[in-house]
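Methods: example folding runs. The two proteins below were folded one after another, and each record is reproduced exactly as written to the output file, sequence line first and structure-token line second.
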Amino acid sequence: MALALLGVAACSRPSDPPAQPPPSVEAFLARHWADPIAPQGSPPAAYSALEASLSPSACGQCHPAQRDDWQHSLHAKAMGPGIRWQLLLMDQAGANRCLRCHAPLAEQKALLAIEHGWPAAPSQPPPAYVEPALAQEGLVCAACHVRAHRRYGPPARPDAAPAQGEALVHGGAQRTPAFGDSRFCAHCHQFPDDGPRTAGKLHEDTYAQWLASPHAPDRPCQSCHMPGRRHLWRGIHDPQTTRDAIDVQMQLRPLTVAGRYEVLTEVRNVGAGHHFPTYMVPKVELAFVRVDASGAEQPIGQRVIGWTVDTAITREIEDTRIPAGASARFALPFDAPGEPGWAVELRIVVKPGEHYERTFRDSLARADRLPASALPLLRQALQRVVDAEYELMRLRRTPAG
């Protein structure tokens, strides 16, 4: 009860300190995303346990809407089974390269080092403000908003009530426009020039794709992925976001050879501020099917939009991604049935984790080489990837139009 009352009391305080001249966005981000992120250190003596906590549940006491959105986001799932089974195969240095974005706080890395028995694990138990669950909670609020127990956030909304009085929850927050700048996201969504590449292409290149797009002058990442400042980060896993990203046009055209037709399709990237899709993991499959009057189906062909590489990530198979504002066109000839009443359907299926699916299946085929403790997590990761697939849309055309 004491903790609950403390939370209510803390949330009743004003939330903004007096304005301070902000550093430039570039200078702020260089300091904010210093790699690795430094430990928070000892919290200020005046902080309550709630104010000192790095847990999203603590943040949610005063920011329930943001906490609720985050809980359903991929950021909250960044430490899911897909990475956890792989950590069992890694040394600490290799793991830290993944944790840089999947669980970036020093306190999260320390908890995982203890869990995995890595040689550089802390010899002392974590401080009271570090809950054990923090290690598995992924990209938590504090990863973006807390440094040295100081809170940071975007400029206050124009309609926000001004701060009154002196007692501020966790000392208030330092406000900076960096939180609305695409460069804020680049720390995890853009590998450096010397980062890993396949066929000369960076594995993570989203910020550079956006920078070269028509969206760069006035549509930062946050305008699509955090509309109204909501902590959603929806992308290709979300059907509506994906539908908003593309325009699909389809028509049938008779060829000069009797009984032969061609299905012409154009997919245009009208909404994504980067390639569609942006990197190697997702794929968008276009299946063309001829349906006769009785409902019998005959496949015409299939096309894939995406960057396909082998599971070792050493060889490019094809790259059919669509840059922002560009189009991809497909033409598939086929034989029309002799009877009238037929049509052609285009079925678009999105596989947000297609590359992971192939990788996980290959790994399961070599299960005898893996630690037994990794197998349940690997199977769970594969099932989650398969479950994430969905049919985005169907288009149907007849010879009459």
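Second run, written to the same file directly after the first:
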Amino acid sequence: MKKKKLILVSFDALSCTDLEYVKTLPHFSRIMKEGAYCTHVHSVYPSLTFPSHASIATGCRPSSHGIVNNYVLEPFARIHKWNFYASSLTRRAIWDYAAENGKRVMNMSWPVSAGGKMAYSMPEMSPVKPKVWNLDSFVRQMKVLCKYGTPRFAMRTLLSDRELPKAWFLGKQPNLDMSMMDRFLDAVNRYDFDIAMLHIYGLDDTKHTYGIYSGKCRYYLKEYDRFVGQLMDYARQCSDQNVTLLFTGDHSQKQVSYAIHGNMVLERLGYCTYESKRLTGYRAYLDSGDGMAYIYIKGGDKEQVTARVKEAFAVNRGVSRVMEKQDFENLGCDKEADLVLEARDGYYFESGYEEAADEEGIVNSHYQGVHGYLPDGENYQTMMFAWGEDVAPFQVETMGIIDILPSVCHWLNMKIDPVDGTARTQMWKKRTGGDS
């Protein structure tokens, strides 16, 4: 019986808006003929990278797995900490189920995986700012990856390309994506694994900087297609193994022109205080999730404060919805928030101080593309492509990223806890056995 192997690759910000070009690329288009795919995959709320990847790994929404934003909520921090750590998850992830079933996981740059129990791991994390590349930065980076990954694997991977340590630390694209794809191809050939995971984000960076329809996005899509083809070649060469390839995005993006600095609104209401542009106190605080925002209220008279804050943002030209707990408690975002705001198309939220903001807290955006919005918006879905010996030629009309974990665990015959997602069994041919 053939050994089953899963290769799970996340192309950050791969969107249904990329579909027309993707259909012209040889390897993606081949999967659309021979494999399973879905061009309307819903993200989670907020549709941000770290909550989304935690959802792919756990099959659960953010309110269930505990990662409700990219950053840890720290209103007074100078530098906000990313949600790097697997220990922050309140639900089990794919690497936990794999360990329970005696399977070996290989991880390169998967968010919210630092410290997770895996055979080979170089998690997505780097030392905190300042982002200045020097010997001290290099040493700190190596210490972090060795502490929260598997030291030998992380060091070998990072040092096998002389450009990778700097690109990793600075997030320098396209160098980082190109190097990571090469290192991943080397690793799947070199190491014995059951599940291999990779996250790359050059496309996401490009959409943030140049917009979702920029011709520069096509460079990454073309390179990703080349990489898909190389992994298909790898799978064909493993004739004694049963390899499934699954490629997915995590969220889409929207074009933006304006940023809403919501805490400037709260300052004018008397609910935030600043000294030298630093937050020194608050009764109400806005924590940005880019296309959405949480508002946390503390102290007495919460009902009165909540009502005033709600009234102020309800008439803000950049805000489409102001939601109270009964409105957002089933959306999968942080249930500890007092209010949740959704931005209008063309707008997004910022948490920081902004002197130039108008009376509604609005300034011109320094981004062209942003995500975080409700995942059911028009043309705001991501996509999924699966290919392999056991994958049925099938188009899934619609699904969520929370369906990925139960779907692949169904194929791997790994029992999992009750999750928010549903196994998409139509993706698979009739089971033919294997060591799963």
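Comment on the second run: Residues 3-253+377-427 form a domain with the Alkaline Phosphatase, subunit A fold (CATH 3.40.720.10).
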